[in-house]
């Protein structure tokens, strides 16, 4: 197998029109790592993930998976690469026309020639992993959002990938299920040597499963990495915004309330008129 | 213009997945998916096609009889029926029914899948969405359109027969003989060519409109409307073109 990092992201920049969503993001993920990508809502976490899996093309910068450049990869190579990783979408992204079981079986049936009986067994196995035994024959529209997410996870690991991407796997789940999914991710990475990249803003689960973390900034530092390293390093980061984020405080570098002057400027688009002050 | 190049690219990809990919050891198209779509698009359209064709048959016979009776030529009603149904109306009316039923459904379905990330999920699983979603619908339409048109022809003749039997005092036997006698192979061929081309156009236009949806539920609605309007427009223009082709091919003969 290739030596060196499994994923290597370098100076990734992505602009949508005038808005810069990713502004020079760099990090590496080694084999067996669980990389946590944190950051406030709308700071570009999912966008970053989409660039890594090759769904979106960056404005500049490079993304390497297993040592191969993803951003310039041909469709054919990308298809082959994608067989080696699983992706768990934020809202599950299950095919509504298929049942839960068929959804999980889909990667198996379409990408490999496996006996139907074995497919059946694998589907049961994977659904058991996420605690959804007996739901095979329901349609995605008949189960809850949290369950859909878990089916998405079962589908993502159906081919036993080397690399797992998970977009907010635990948001909207109850505490027990959150712990179950976290434990599952831990088992997959620790026991099966799978590498995982998890996007989340659930602090408990982030520190429970992560071996490496990056935090994306907000406001003026949007789209840049403001803290990176092991969970301990991030927890002890001197950066005030990181501390505010980890502790979940309403006020701090990301302000709760603007100063009156700033507020008026934002509201009116101009300084407060002098005459109105009296 | 970008839409047009996407359209041709989609056509090329569909043909690739049907005729090239299976011979390169790539995963082919699932027969079960094709049959599923054939039932959806073809079999379930039978009642609607029947009603439409029956109405057209009856209407044609009545109007034809009205005009022809002034020249005392009501016995030519079957000739009129066979010519217009076989060559034109069966294919056109079936096309309209299929656009309304299936063309719009294809756009809405693919569009919804697009906005709910399902298409992206397929791509990430290395499942080509065109092979998996578009090709079965394409094959189903290209096969079922001619079948529906043949069926539509029969029902249209039944409609005409009702008028001829009860209003024009023509007996069943002479009606059938007259129809068989007046219908030429070329009439049927013309209708069949049209039906296949219409099926092709409906499948590709509605799929392309579906795959290019953006902007949530509103986008799906807009694309579905666009798709139906565009399908009907293109179908009528192409119909004129095909009719012209047959007209100029056959002209020297007659």
Q: In brief, what are we looking at here?
A:
The complex is a heterodimer of chains A (about 280) and B (about 250). Chain A is an alpha/beta fold and about 280 residues long. Chain A is about 35% helix and about 20% strand.
What would you note in describing this structure?
The complex is a heterodimer of chains A (278) and B (254). Chain A is 36% helix and 21% strand. Chain A is α/β, with parallel strands linked by helices and 278 residues long. In chain A, the strands form two sheets. Chain A has a six-stranded mixed beta sheet with strand order 6-7-8-3-9-10, sandwiched between helices. Chain A has a four-stranded antiparallel beta sheet with strand order 2-1-4-5, with helices on one face. In chain A, helix 3 (100-111) crosses helix 4. The N and C termini of chain A lie far apart (74 Å). By secondary structure, chain B is mainly alpha-helical. Chain B has one domain. Chain B is elongated.
Write the layout of secondary structure elements.
The complex is a heterodimer of chains A (278) and B (254).
Chain A: E1 7-16, E2 19-29, E3 34-39, H1 45-52, E4 60-65, E5 68-69, H2 75-82, E6 85-88, H3 100-111, H4 116-129, H5 145-156, E7 163-167, H6 175-192, E8 195-199, H7 203-209, E9 212-216, E10 225-229, H8 231-235, H9 240-247, H10 260-268
Parallel strand pairs in A: 3-8, 3-9, 6-7, 7-8
Antiparallel strand pairs in A: 1-2, 1-4, 4-5, 9-10
Helix pairs in contact in A: 3-4, 3-5, 4-5
Chain B: H1 2-20, H2 31-41, H3 46-69, H4 77-115, H5 118-124, H6 129-166, H7 172-182, H8 185-211, H9 216-250
Helix pairs in contact in B: 1-6, 2-6, 3-4, 3-6, 4-6, 4-7, 4-8, 4-9, 6-7, 6-8, 8-9
Count of DSSP-assigned helices of chain B: 9
CATH superfamily of the largest domain in chain A: P-loop containing nucleotide triphosphate hydrolases
What top-tier CATH class of the largest domain in chain A fits best? Alpha Beta
Shape of chain B: elongated
The rounded Rg of chain A comes to: 21 Å
Instruction: Determine the N-to-C terminus distance of chain B.
Output: 41 Å
Distance between the termini of chain A: 74 Å
CATH topology name of the largest domain in chain A: Rossmann fold
Fraction of residues in helix of chain B:
over 70%
Shape of chain A: globular
Question: Cα-atom Rg of chain B, whole angstroms?
Answer: 21 Å
Biggest interface, CB < 8 A? A-B, 20 and 17 residues
Strand order of the largest sheet of chain A: 6-7-8-3-9-10
Number of strands of chain B: 0
The ordered H/E elements of chain B are HHHHHHHHH
Low-confidence stretches of chain B: none
The portion of residues forming beta strands of chain B comes to under 5%
């Amino acid at each position: 197998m290739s030596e060196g990092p499994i994923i290597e992201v370098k100076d990734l920049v992505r602009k949508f029109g005038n808005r810069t969503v990713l502004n020079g993001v760099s990090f590496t993920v080694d084999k067996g790592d669980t990389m946590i990508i944190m950051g406030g809502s709308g700071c570009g976490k999912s966008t970053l993930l989409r660039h890594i899996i090759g769904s979106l093309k960056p404005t500049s910068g490079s993304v390497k998976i297993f040592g191969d450049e993803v951003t310039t990869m041909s469709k054919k190579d990308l298809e082959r690469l994608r067989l080696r990783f699983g992706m768990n979408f934020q809202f599950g992204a299950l095919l509504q026309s298929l049942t839960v079981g068929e959804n999980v079986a889909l990667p198996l049936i379409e990408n490999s020639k496996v006996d139907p009986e074995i497919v059946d067994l694998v589907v049961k196995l994977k659904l058991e992993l996420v605690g959804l035994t007996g739901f095979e024959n329901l349609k995605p529209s008949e189960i809850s959002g949290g369950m859909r997410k878990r089916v998405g996870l079962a589908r993502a690991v159906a081919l036993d990938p080397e690399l797992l991407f998970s977009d907010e796997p635990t948001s909207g789940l109850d505490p027990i299920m959150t712990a179950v999914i976290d434990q599952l991710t831990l088992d997959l990475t620790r026991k099966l040597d799978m590498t995982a990249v998890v996007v989340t803003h659930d602090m408990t689960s982030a520190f429970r499963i992560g071996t490496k973390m990056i935090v994306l900034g907000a406001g003026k530092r949007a789209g840049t990495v403001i803290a990176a390293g092991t969970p301990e390093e991030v927890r002890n980061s001197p950066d005030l915004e990181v501390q505010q984020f980890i502790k979940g405080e309403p006020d701090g570098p990301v302000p709760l309330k603007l100063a009156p002057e700033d507020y008026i400027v934002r509201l009116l688009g101009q300084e407060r008129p002098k005459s109105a002050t009296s | 213009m970008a839409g047009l190049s996407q359209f041709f690219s989609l056509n090329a990809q569909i043909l690739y997945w049907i005729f090239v990919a299976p011979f390169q050891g790539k995963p082919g198209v699932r027969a079960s998916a094709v049959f599923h779509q054939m039932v959806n698009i073809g079999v379930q359209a039978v009642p609607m096609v029947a009603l439409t064709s029956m109405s057209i048959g009856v209407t044609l016979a009545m109007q034809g009889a009205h005009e022809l009776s002034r020249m005392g030529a009501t016995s030519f009603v079957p000739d009129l029926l066979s010519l217009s149904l076989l060559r034109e109306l069966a294919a056109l009316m079936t096309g309209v029914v299929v656009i309304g039923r299936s063309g719009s459904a294809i756009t809405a379905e693919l569009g919804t899948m697009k906005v709910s990330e399902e298409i992206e999920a397929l791509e990430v699983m290395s499942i080509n969405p065109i092979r998996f979603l578009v090709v079965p619908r394409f094959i189903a339409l290209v096969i079922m359109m001619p079948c529906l048109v043949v069926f539509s022809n029969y029902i249209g003749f039944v409609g005409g027969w009702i008028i001829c039997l009860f209003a024009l005092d023509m007996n069943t036997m002479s009606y059938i003989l007259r129809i068989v006698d007046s219908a030429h192979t070329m009439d049927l061929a013309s209708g069949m060519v049209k039906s296949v081309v219409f099926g092709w156009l409906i499948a590709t236009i509605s799929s392309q409109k579906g795959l290019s949806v953006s902007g949530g539920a509103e986008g799906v609605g807009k694309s579905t409307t666009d798709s139906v309007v565009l399908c009907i427009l293109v179908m009528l223009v192409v119909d004129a073109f095909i009719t012209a082709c047959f007209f100029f091919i056959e002209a020297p003969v007659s």
